[in-house]
């Protein structure tokens, strides 16, 4: 046997190197994403890079911070001047995790126990993000095949300033993954939770998904902003000149609409009454992106619009339309406006055209407002109101957000908190729903 | 050629191929990501060099910034009050104290300006003096500047500064003072653009002339909005540019949150 092996060792060696090269070629072949990061980083379009203040890893950050005490009592934190989310990122990006281990899936009750993990801090995304996005924001390299998307990051704080594990949670099938880490320092995270304000919250499974509920009435402050307006002409220039194919932009007016046409394929429609903008770019062939890739692609399109990104964050992804809604947030709370001000929708080219929907108005510069607080009822009262109005069955989500009331005359706006319900797929103001 | 030799050639060829594939995989995941952005800034810095714009090393670190409100009250003190200040003749007008020392303060060479003036500023010779700190970047041979601070960063508007006048004999003859009160952080910490970004973005907006020298790039706060006495401060980068041919200097300002440049004269 050994003699035979000795005689043929060159042939065996050759076989081994051939097999290795086949395996490596296979990896390069099926995983082009790994060796091609063209959808990543701060770069906008490749030919003329847009100047953006918020890189991809900022836009796709968690927005909500919930602290759980020893008795599973939960508090949503806001107004901590050191910014708990940024502080957590600055800590986590230095940690080196061992591997992802699935510790449970499919069981609602166990999942709720992890959402309410004693003595922990939880950072939550407004809706799931692909693992590649988590990796990018937190400077990690976790396997996207073990866990493809993330909703919550749970950091236990029960063992002093050094911790040895964190959890990643995916609402999809109630999956909980554990990440081991060596002596990760959580001192800065602990510090960042001090000061500011908090409101009492809880978690509940609603319509097959966990939601944050407010067991007691809450009082929240109003926030003031100066409204920033962008110029539709400069937006049209930015949108239509961002490729190597420069084209002259023509514009024509038509009962309250200005239509900018760039070449034959690009069209921007500005509604001068509402202040909204719709952009379409007909490409012809369709672009296909995997779930892991499309967030980067859509961010690059967002960065190419020239819209101020200061207070924008990722809000929701629609799998059907391959579209992301980016929304303005104030201290972790989403901002809603009935004309869609402060949100940008970017739709991937899946039927031959890319489509953007946004507006001229955004919120950047805060102004001080009086210290008045607005009182909101508990979520039980809200659900009762909806039941009485006969609308509870079509509700699929609930959250507290801030209402930006459109007032054309003023360039300062006071945002007031209220409940928003996901009704027939859209976020609607509670007051509007029950009246 | 015998079979053995061919076999060896194949083995070597495949080993080389394996090494090549490994390298490309590792390089792709590790270095590609950050490399691209670095080079973009490097390209712009190179372009600036070609346009004869000189600049010292710039940091690519983003800073912490806070939107902050303050009161800019034109009546923060009164003539009555400033008349009582010892050792000086002071007048209060339009929110600014204008004062001349009765006896000039001689600045000794050797000892630091800051140490000598700190004693004056932090004494009761100056109203609210303890709230101001020395700023080396803003000070020149003719003028020594103290500023109020927001989270340890200087206020770059005269409403929050004390400017000491220095004569040719290195004597401080007097000062002008503005004052802001009731600083209040409006929003939690956010990240600003870096020093490098501020300069390269100004350049790409064609704000920096050819054949000039960038002398200072200073981080601080400047008012962006005013509503009655209420002002809102935003972090900014101030880029001081000097023409190499003539002596003319200008101060370019960039909003460090939005990256949008705006122009202002150096003697604001």
Automatic annotation (TrEMBL), chain A:
Residues 9-429 form the Regulatory protein YycH domain. The chain crosses the membrane at residues 12-30. The keyword Membrane applies. It comes from the Bacteria. Keywords: Membrane, Transmembrane, Transmembrane helix. Pfam families: YycH. This is Regulatory protein YycH domain-containing protein.
UniProtKB/TrEMBL annotation, chain B:
The keyword Membrane applies. Gene3D superfamilies: YycH protein, domain 3-like (2.40.128.690). Pfam families: YycI. The chain crosses the membrane at residues 6-27. Residues 37-257 form the Regulatory protein YycH-like domain. InterPro entries: YycI-like. Keywords: Membrane, Transmembrane, Transmembrane helix. This is Two-component system regulatory protein YycI. It comes from Limosilactobacillus coleohominis.
């Amino acid at each position: 046997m050994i003699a035979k092996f000795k005689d043929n060792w060159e042939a065996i060696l050759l076989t081994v190197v051939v097999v290795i090269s086949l395996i490596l070629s296979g990896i390069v072949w099926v995983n082009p994403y790994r060796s091609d990061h063209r959808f990543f980083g701060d770069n906008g379009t490749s030919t003329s890079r847009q100047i953006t203040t918020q890189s991809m890893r900022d836009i796709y950050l968690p927005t909500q911070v919930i602290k759980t005490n020893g008795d599973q009592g939960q508090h949503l934190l806001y107004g901590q001047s050191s910014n708990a989310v940024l502080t957590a990122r600055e800590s986590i990006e230095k940690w080196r995790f061992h591997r992802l281990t699935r510790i449970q899936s499919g069981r609602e009750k166990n999942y709720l126990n992890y959402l309410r993990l004693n003595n922990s801090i939880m950072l939550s995304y407004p809706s799931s993000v692909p693992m590649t996005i988590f990796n990018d924001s937190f400077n990690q390299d976790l396997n996207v095949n073990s866990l493809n998307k993330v909703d919550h990051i749970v950091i236990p704080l029960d063992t002093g300033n050094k911790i040895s594990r964190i959890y990643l949670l995916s609402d999809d099938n109630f999956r909980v993954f554990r990440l081991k880490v060596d002596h990760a320092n959580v001192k800065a995270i602990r510090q960042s939770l001090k000061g500011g304000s908090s409101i009492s919250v809880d978690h509940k499974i609603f319509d097959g998904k966990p939601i944050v509920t407010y067991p007691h009435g809450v009082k929240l402050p109003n926030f003031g902003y100066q409204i920033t307006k962008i110029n539709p002409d400069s937006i049209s220039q930015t949108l239509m000149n961002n490729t190597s194919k420069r084209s002259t932009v023509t514009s024509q007016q038509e009962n309250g609409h200005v239509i900018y046409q760039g070449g034959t394929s690009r069209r921007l429609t500005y509604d001068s009454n509402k202040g909204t903008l719709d952009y379409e770019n007909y490409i012809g062939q369709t672009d296909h992106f995997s779930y892991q890739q499309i967030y980067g692609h859509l961010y690059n399109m967002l960065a190419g619009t020239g819209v101020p990104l200061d207070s924008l964050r990722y809000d929701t992804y629609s799998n059907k339309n391959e579209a992301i809604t980016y929304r303005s947030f104030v201290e972790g709370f989403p901002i809603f406006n009935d004309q869609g001000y402060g949100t940008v929708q970017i739709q991937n080219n899946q039927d031959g055209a890319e489509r953007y929907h946004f507006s001229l108005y955004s919120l950047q510069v805060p102004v001080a407002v009086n210290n008045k607080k607005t009182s909101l009822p508990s979520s039980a009262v809200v659900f009762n109101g909806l039941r009485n109005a006969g609308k509870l069955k079509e509700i699929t989500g609930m959250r507290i957000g801030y209402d930006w009331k459109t007032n054309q005359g003023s360039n300062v706006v006071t945002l007031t908190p209220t409940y928003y319900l996901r009704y027939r797929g859209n976020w609607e103001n509670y007051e509007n729903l029950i009246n | 050629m015998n079979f053995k030799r061919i076999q060896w050639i194949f083995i070597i060829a495949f080993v080389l191929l394996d090494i090549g594939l490994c390298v490309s995989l590792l390089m792709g995941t590790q270095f590609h990501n950050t490399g691209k952005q670095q080079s973009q800034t490097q390209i712009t810095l190179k372009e600036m060099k070609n346009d004869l714009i000189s600049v010292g090393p710039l940091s690519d670190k983003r800073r912490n910034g806070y939107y902050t409100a303050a009161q800019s009250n034109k009546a923060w003190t009164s003539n009555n009050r400033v008349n009582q200040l010892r050792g000086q003749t002071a007048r209060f007008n339009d929110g600014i104290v204008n004062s001349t020392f009765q006896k000039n303060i001689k600045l000794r060479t050797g000892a630091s300006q800051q140490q000598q003036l700190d004693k004056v500023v932090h004494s009761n010779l100056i109203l609210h003096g303890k709230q101001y700190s020395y700023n080396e970047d803003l000070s020149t041979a003719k003028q020594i500047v103290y500023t109020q601070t927001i989270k340890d960063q200087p206020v770059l508007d005269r409403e929050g500064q004390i400017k000491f006048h220095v004569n040719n004999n290195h004597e401080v003859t007097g000062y002008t003072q503005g004052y802001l009160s009731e600083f209040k952080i409006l929003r939690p910490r956010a990240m600003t653009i870096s020093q490098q970004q501020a300069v390269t973005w100004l350049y790409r907006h064609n704000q920096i002339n050819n054949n000039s020298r960038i002398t200072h790039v200073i981080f601080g706060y400047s008012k962006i909005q005013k509503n009655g006495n209420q002002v809102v401060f935003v972090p900014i980068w101030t880029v001081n540019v000097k023409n190499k041919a003539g002596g003319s200097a200008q101060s370019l300002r960039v909003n460090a949150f939005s990256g949008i440049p705006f122009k202002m004269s150096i003697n604001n």
